[in-house]
Amino acid sequence: EPEVTQTPSHQVTQMGQEVILRCVPISNHLYFYWYRQILGQKVEFLVSFYNNEISEKSEIFDDQFSVERPDGSNFTLKIRSTKLEDSAMYFCASTPEGTGELFFGEGSRLTVL
Amino acid sequence: AQKVTQAQTEISVVEKEDVTLDCVYETRDTTYYLFWYKQPPSGELVFLIRRNSFDEQNEISGRYSWNFQKSTSSFNFTITASQVVDSAVYFCALSAYNTNAGKSTFGDGTTLTVKP
């Protein structure tokens, strides 16, 4: 069964460092997402990506965040200068067009020290 | 603005008991999707069900059933004859009925513990 894969599973970084989280969505899906879950809290929408551009982003997704799909398979989330409050589990997800059913990856846990 | 409320933070039951997880939502959209996701202790998020706002039929899948009531803006989830493997955090979610329907608003989640 096709699945969304994410790397790394866990990354520890120092405050102020740049981090790139990588995702390979399901190949025939058209919409790609990043969600964030701070430990023990709700799952929050960060950004959606369609047709090689951001379709929507949340207030959390400020100038420190960026996404791209560099090669037609990978979908990356970059945090330019990490802060302590960026520590969270980051989930990548993809959907076929219009269904809303999110296929999540296993998540990348980011710890900012 | 959309909002999902899961008033039950934690529920603990003994195996084989039935349990209902409540979900109440708010939206100005006339058409929308509702979802339930499961997050087991291993941490991944697993899709369970999607409901369209114009389809108020209740659904049953094995031991799981869902009760959608538009009049009360509720989408409750019942597990019949619960098992230890049902222990997880369950999230209710809401999205607009459009092409970017994967942009979901999640509730805070209900932690279900099923004891043997």
Give a written overview of the molecule.
- The complex is a heterodimer of chains A (113) and B (116).
- With 113 residues, chain A is mainly beta.
- In chain A, 0% of the residues lie in helices and 50% in strands.
- Chain A is built from no helices and eleven strands.
- In chain A, strands 2, 4, 5, 6, 9, 10 and 11 form a seven-stranded mixed sheet that branches. In chain A, strands 1-3-8-7 form a four-stranded antiparallel sheet, with no helix packed on it.
- Chain A is globular.
- With 116 residues, chain B is an all-beta fold.
- In chain B, a hairpin with a 2-residue loop joins β7 (59-61) and β8.
- Chain B is globular and about 45 Å long.
- The N and C termini of chain B lie far apart (41 Å).
- The model of chain B has no long low-confidence stretch (mean pLDDT 94).
- The chains are: A mainly beta (113), B mainly beta (116).
- The A-B interface holds A 31, 33, 41-45, 48, 50, 55-56, 89, 91, 93-95, 97-107 and B 33, 35, 37, 43-47, 50, 91, 93, 95, 97-109.
Low-confidence spans of chain B = none
Residue share in helices of chain A?
under 10%
Shape of chain B from CA axes?
Answer: globular
Low-pLDDT runs of chain A: none
Radius of gyration of chain A (Å): 13 Å
Name the overall outline of chain A. globular
Quaternary state reads: heterodimer
Number of helices of chain A: 0
DSSP summary: helix tally of chain B: 0
What fraction strand of chain B? over 45%
Rounded mean pLDDT score of chain A: 93
Strand content of chain A: over 45%
* Structural class by SSE content of chain B: mainly beta
Describe the biggest sheet of chain B? 6 strands, mixed
Could you report the average pLDDT of chain B, rounded to the nearest whole number?
94
